[in-house]
Amino acid sequence: MFLNSLPTQLAEWFAAKRWSPRRHQLEMLEAARRGEHALLVAPTGAGKTLAGFMASLAELIEQPADGLHTLYVSPLKALAVDVQRNLLTPIAEMGLDIRVETRTGDTPSDRKARQRVRPPQMLLTTPESLSLLLSYPDSFTMFASLKTIVVDEVHAFATGKRGDLLALSMARLQRIAPNLRRVALSATVADPDGYRAWLAPDGDIDAVTLVQGEKGADPHISILIPEDRIPWAGHSGRYAAAQVMAEIETHKTTIVFCNTRSLAELIFQDLWAVNELKLPIGIHHGSLSVDARRKVEQAMADSRLRALVATASLDLGVDWGDVDCVIQMGAPKGASRLVQRVGRANHRLDEPSEAILVPGNRFEYLEARAALDAVTAGELDNDVFRTGALDVLAQHIMACACAAPFEEAGLLDEIRSALPYSALTDERFGQVLSYIQSGGYALKAYDRFKRLTRDPDGTWRVSHPRFVTQHRLNAGIIVEATMLNVRFRNGRTVGKVEESFAATLSPKDTFFFAGLVLEVEKIEVEDLIVRATSKPARIPTYGGARMPISTHLADRVRAFLASPQEWPRFPDDVREWLEMQARRSALPGPDQLLIETFPREGRHYMVVYSFEGWNAHQSLGMLVTRRMETLGIKPLGFVASDYAIATYSLEPVSDPRALFSPDILEHEFVDWVQQSSLLKRAFREVAVIGGLVERQHPGKRKTGKQVSFSTDLIYDVLRRYEPDHLLLRAAWEDARAKMTDVGRLANLLDRANDTMLHVSLDRVSPLAVPVLVLIGRERVAQGTVDDLLLIEAEALVAEAMSTD
């Protein structure tokens, strides 16, 4: 099939390897021959990268040319480096005169300058670096010869702000090179049509050919059942360290995935403590220094590690062939994420990947079982495509202006050809331009916000060259929390911790980081000076929204609760837990909202089993306790998990309906968000992305404190004098969508009163134990947590499971 379309050198290379091109690789080549855009959906190990580059290799073999031919865009710097390595090998083996280079934030400045003058035929980059390239006047000549853009792991950014930036950049590239062909690759896409529309110019879905890869061997996924019993609470799986170590001992190379950086540090220490064979183990997460990550990645590539503890920093396709097992600590939170992580084990399509899930508690066992069933059924989590963000649009417009003056109508047409901005109105576009021109009504007296000028002929240009420098120094979509460098006295940096965690430390305090135990020597403005020690230590904490359970998995867990016929599949202790819940209280149906109320030790508890994820539950907990206060119920606090919320108060909740009406979003929600730090935090991000506040000046970088101080001042001015400012609106949208998960919250409140099942009990129920233990966790002081929580949990369990 299509084999005769392969150039001789490519066909001979396949033959020398004793390989045959896969069907989807040839279909991608044929789509390119027809000049069509294409989306390839194929499992890990199916040769997606080669499929994406096949047409480019064929064209450059048949018609050798200088100049930039193919642009490859990756969500991760590490992925770009990895693909370069995998692409250089076949190019060298075929003896092709094709230059392949990477361009990321880590690329030396002299190479970046040379790449703009004499670009390679293939350039591997990230959305942020591409946007910066487009801000130079020579971008029009650099990209004039561009034939193909390949977007790898498209699911990783299409639905977020990085995807907005990339969509706008592709619109600009299409204007520079009208015959540009767009290609996207992914292993985990539930809605191919949504991604075809996102990829296509003008959202024309029919312009993008969908190529489906062959289905690979079904993965072998198992759930680790502990030697004792599945815990009632916790979400780390730390109890299974010895069993996890035993799995590492019996495999070539294992990646141990954790959902947070803090947990990764903990699990690394736990595994090292039981590593009796002293096997080489590494750790990898986004807060480690670039050097530390590169060393670990190289050690993995050289097969010098037996295990690597990692976070989402390795979710995406770094190809290490010797990895033959993936272990997920705690629940995976989504079927798509699980598929992505399982794909890191064994990059061979015809051999099954092996994965082990380690649930942290009984609810997480149900979630792990739900994820396993979803993967078996081939069901993935749906992605939600959203309207493009205005702060990203402002940054892109500034990049365009840095490259050349522009006319308003022409740029608007170009921007509307990107799907996220296809519905952008003339009025809103004018507001964004006005914001960049003056900063807005409340800030127009300050020259430093006047970045654009409109000439009498209607052309827009950058007001002063300093704004061009300012843009290039500060452009980017990823806004990290305020961080301090962790470094030794000799200057070696090992990574970063958040300023909020560093503020809790004093000299001689100790903490785990990068697999080491570090003691604080002193704290400077931007640096935490440390030395290695062997003293007992604590774990750094990181802020930000937690990864919530997906709606798809939550629905499957609900279905388990309402289906006793499924329970024989579960371990005895999980089955007994559910059976006792059915006997003592009730189990909610798939569409029911179960609410239990009961007294305990002089307090009154309400537990809401809503299954809408941690972020939505945190928001709802705040709102419900506010309303409880108004109604005189005297709340003392609340705790939340992915599955439930528990409030505790001095007075009982006799009728929960009054607490769960949809108007809570119109009253308490708006007041709470505006008065909390959520909106201010969201404003800091949009102000940086939108170019209102600089992170860096030439030769000097602002500290996180300085950035926060600047944004807080501007925030207060705008709230007072221009409350409908463009960036305040953008911050409000971010706070609603990202930090509070308002969509799931609204869905819950809309159905609450119609589906509520209120059960009044005389004591705690079995289903309530996992969330009530969290109250104990919040009350217990550091250092005594484990012992006291164990006593608390045992007392709760005895009470809940008693048949009296």
TrEMBL record:
Gene Ontology terms, MF aspect: ligase activity
Domain Helicase ATP-binding: 29-199
Pfam family, one: DEAD
Residue stretches making up the Helicase C-terminal domain: 240-383
Transmembrane segments: none
SMART domains referenced in this protein's UniProt entry, alphabetically: DEXDc, HELICc
Keyword list, A-Z: ATP-binding, DNA damage, DNA repair, DNA-binding, Helicase, Hydrolase, Isomerase, Ligase, Nucleotide-binding
Superkingdom: Bacteria
Record keyword Hydrolase present: yes
Record-stated family: Belongs to the Lhr helicase family. Lhr-Core subfamily.
Protein name according to UniProt: Ligase-associated DNA damage response DEXH box helicase
